[in-house]
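Dear all,

This email documents one entry for the complex benchmark we are building for the journal club exercise. For each entry we list the sequence lines for every component of the assembly. Then comes the predicted three-dimensional structure of the complex as a token string, followed by one or two observations. Please use this as the template for your own entries, and keep the labels exactly as they appear.
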Amino acid sequence: MAKFKEIISNIENTNASLFQKDFLLTWNKSREELELILYVAEALRKLYKNNISTRCFDSGLAVSQFRDNSTRTRFSFASAANLLGLTVQDLDEGKSQISHGETVRETSNMISFLTEIIGIRDDMYLGAGHEYMKEVGASLDDGFMNNVLPQRPGIVNLQCDIDHPTQSMADLAHLRKWFGSLEELKGKKIAMTWAYSPSYGKPLSVPQGIIGLMTRFGMNVSLAHPEGYGLIPDVVELAGKQAAESGGSFEVVNSMDEAFKDADIVYPKSWAPFHIMGKRTELLRAGDQSELKELEKEALSNNAKHKDWECTRDKMNLTKDGKALYMHCLPADITDVSCKAGEVSAEVFEQYRIATYKEAGYKPYIIAAMMMTNRFYDVAELLKFLNKSNMPRVF
Amino acid sequence: MAKFKEIISNIENTNASLFQKDFLLTWNKSREELELILYVAEALRKLYKNNISTRCFDSGLAVSQFRDNSTRTRFSFASAANLLGLTVQDLDEGKSQISHGETVRETSNMISFLTEIIGIRDDMYLGAGHEYMKEVGASLDDGFMNNVLPQRPGIVNLQCDIDHPTQSMADLAHLRKWFGSLEELKGKKIAMTWAYSPSYGKPLSVPQGIIGLMTRFGMNVSLAHPEGYGLIPDVVELAGKQAAESGGSFEVVNSMDEAFKDADIVYPKSWAPFHIMGKRTELLRAGDQSELKELEKEALSNNAKHKDWECTRDKMNLTKDGKALYMHCLPADITDVSCKAGEVSAEVFEQYRIATYKEAGYKPYIIAAMMMTNRFYDVAELLKFLNKSNMPRVF
Amino acid sequence: MAKFKEIISNIENTNASLFQKDFLLTWNKSREELELILYVAEALRKLYKNNISTRCFDSGLAVSQFRDNSTRTRFSFASAANLLGLTVQDLDEGKSQISHGETVRETSNMISFLTEIIGIRDDMYLGAGHEYMKEVGASLDDGFMNNVLPQRPGIVNLQCDIDHPTQSMADLAHLRKWFGSLEELKGKKIAMTWAYSPSYGKPLSVPQGIIGLMTRFGMNVSLAHPEGYGLIPDVVELAGKQAAESGGSFEVVNSMDEAFKDADIVYPKSWAPFHIMGKRTELLRAGDQSELKELEKEALSNNAKHKDWECTRDKMNLTKDGKALYMHCLPADITDVSCKAGEVSAEVFEQYRIATYKEAGYKPYIIAAMMMTNRFYDVAELLKFLNKSNMPRVF
């Protein structure tokens, strides 16, 4: 781990600021802003390891709104809030969709009188999650401008239908550590591939987040999936454009083997096809249980044709020196462990298990960095102040 | 907003103390005690805006017990606790009524060993909510006197069957700000009127809280509802008595137009008639689902006869210069927005939307003031100390 | 209550350390380690009463995982965490059993990146709860050794299938206070007896915890239950061995009267027989609802044969001078109060009600002591530092 001074210097050199900017999609952030998050997360981790308190709020709420189940992101969000001195208050609206714009506007204000950060997971409805977050943001703007709110809380996207930035940024932090630097990522091949799973309906946000982020860093990104398992076309198009700009490359192939070939990194993970997710969204909205069951049956039977999309030792042998880094957002569907046939063989997963845990371990700091950069104008100064104060985290 | 010194001076001039007194009903508090809450809330808000920490607990629990759904009061309570340094722990007993006195006595003690404040919402059962809070209070007295508890936690009524003091006090703070002072409220006409809603079973505590509080301040309070939609008779009687004492007036009319006429303030809000709520309580207790459905049907069909009880622009034109302040505890049933036909037209609500949000914004500070005055003997000294300490809330 | 200096001196004299040791079973702890917990709990209580902050964490999570309902342990855990400056984050997995070793390993790490303490209640499945806690512990060891976790969180058993150490240690603290010292417990007779209850399926961990702990302190422990209501044989055997070693005695009798005879302390409490719990575990695992109903019917009809196992005034008259101390972990099934016929008569319970509340009042401090001794190498030094710092808990 770099020295604290170097990290601060890195932060200052970005010349970037995310002050009062919501973090919704990585591709709406500049390269410098993304680096800022990485460095601030690194600084927070450094201070944590040195048992130095990073508390910068004496009070204040961090509201979480999970419109889908979550364990690790929930804990990461809670850890991040706690690290900075914020208290989590969960907005539990059940599984129902808030249906009227008016109500979103009102609720957003009602939960925000003393709130600093709102973290939202809303990934079930294609075309809805990101829109919802923007609506919350506009509602908060309205409330702040009209003196309803003494501050305008920042929004952190904890997974929407389009992107999963806290995941992809944690993944990026992991890659940076693994390969030594962001520079080292240039020219590395990453295979973001679909993999078989006995469940269906998994969101598209992870693969989209990966291709939408890694194409920013000069990597050669290979997206692989069976025919008919495409992602949101706009995001795929964007990935291609970004790859060209950053000096990397982007391809879409229909073969796991092809993607794995000479890959430095593999990210095999199941998702539901774009058109299925679209249909599912319609049926969920209509509350049509019998059609949903039909759709699930159809989707699962489609999936079953692609059981060979499993990350096995044989597949891994296709990668660069047979030694590609295996990544996953967890939990993985592990063959013979969590299911009969899944995304990855037990052998491969076990080999990289600790690495995937470490990958997940970046998330609390990434989220804390998103919170901190949103709330503080000069984060480098704040971190220096915290380091100098040297208040012990544990007595 | 007044200067901090003036606010402190106001607090000192009340000569009132709420130290170790539960806050259950506004009409059991003296005028000075009510003012004390307003001023302390104002001071807390002032310190918040000046980024000065109001943390006065290093540890301690604030227990919340919601026997009915809540979003805004839940967040207000959480915000208030957080503002003072308390941690919320929710007592989640499901929807079941605790049926034996013994159990209330036991539970009250078991949750209170390190607890400073207990906030309770219990508004579903007529004749039960306020009684429950008193029973909790007696149980805590018993535990404290017998050395079971190292301190006797204070109780804050977060809405019972009779009163909703955190709402009505927030409303009063809003009115004080809107009209400039409590003195200015003298002689102002407020129309607390029933309004049509497509739902039923809404508690009586808001209208009761309003007529029970505003009659203390020399206002001319007009309570309006269709025949058969009366409130608890004792509270209505009390309102009349209080109005006479404070130099205001109180009337009950059966016409929304009459109440609106020349009103300075209107508060149109649906509620279920007293006798319906009584019957409903019996059926809820008996768990008689089919009779409950019958009752709902009957009540809704009764409501439907009064769809003209809607706060429209035409109705607003009846008020003083057509410019009365519209108030609501939120969420309102807004015609064409949250329902087909409701309490208020979209046009009128939109005109006053920001005002109602601001009205709601007083609640966290009002609750914090109730907590603080309950726990600290000399609140003025404490607030001065906090101001002088000048510890930043956000670094 | 002893002077603070004396308590510290007691702590130092134990020469014991529980630093980084999970607290799962009292019988795996040395006598000195158990005393350490008692003294640290006493010190924390002393500081609390003197309004001195015992906050020793500036941030950090205390994760709670309740696989069975809980009110008082939940509040005790929350209070303990709060007392030390930790924030509770609940791991809510519903009622489902985590079925795969892999998943436990992963989940344990995922919730632990910034976690100091994990408290677990898992008492429903015989043969599973304690095993689960050990598996969590091994998973955390694995994560810590592999640099996944920056610290290895400590585990506190909040009730498993075998032991309920936070309860039994709180009970011991209560007895120490009641009789003046641990020395005074030598030779005292405690009757841990089964009692009738109209419910079934109550865990064995309380009676096992009591016989497993009190036999360490030279007490004469009499375990009484109807034939066929035995506890886990290993624990019963252990109790006998421990009693012999500590200079006390241990007997198992099938008569409540015999156990009560000349007892100094009685602890009448219902539980489900070992073999029934075993069968129940199998059926719960199989999800066999109809067989579970059959089993419940059979168990309740067996229970009904022993309605005379009720702690009445007549039974109490059998104890030493008719004045034995009545104990219960609460809530008790009280005849004519919480049920028609239960574990204890209303008269006896009312006589000792306050005493049982006080008994429960030790739990937050016991849990806080388990947390603190797990996280800090030199607890005596820490407590002295906190006392000297003299930071007010409430301003």
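Observations: The longest helix of chain C spans residues 31-49. The mean pLDDT of chain C is 95.
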